[in-house]
Amino acid sequence: MIRVVICDDHAMVRRGIRDTLADAVDIQVTAEAGSYAEVRETLRETPCDVLVLDLNLPGRGGLDVLASLREAASPIKVLIVSMFAEDQYAIRCLRAGAQGYLNKAGDPTELVVAVRTVAQGRKYVTAEVSEMLVENLASPTTEALHSTLSERELQTLLRIASGKRLSDIAEELMLSPKTVSVYRSRLLEKLKLANNAELTVYAIRNELV
Fold it and tell me: What is the pLDDT confidence band of residue 141, given thresholds at 50, 70 and 90?
């Protein structure tokens, strides 16, 4: 039996994932969580073979969860299920330690296949991502500037591009406004941009939002 923990901050999404996996006789959802803190606590108390994880969590995000699991040398396999475009985030997540990546807009039947695949210790990506990886190997391209961003910097960029004020971002990420301001300064420097408007245009052009 493959024991699965679901981590997503939207209860309806968790319910949809749970219902999809319920049809598989070899998969059992053992627990759910809605944040970084909740999933860390849950994984300490609940048996888990595969963590189905969203990237966009309140406060510390999915990449932070991946980092904590890798630091602890955890045997838990992680399948990212996110609304973010695969061509922008799949490789980043795989490099961070995830075993698989699925877009929430994909076919629900893929979820069962993906969970079984990563539970066996193998990688799972869609055909589109596989093709992208092959093309990159055949014709290496210069990585986009945003590939160098930290998890916090990326979270800040996405929220600025969504029109949120720094004070709102600070509250949402559970950080001080001064810290968020530092992340914004780093973003402008790393992306070679001048202001929030240019950050927003960059995010849109690169299909980050």
Answer: low
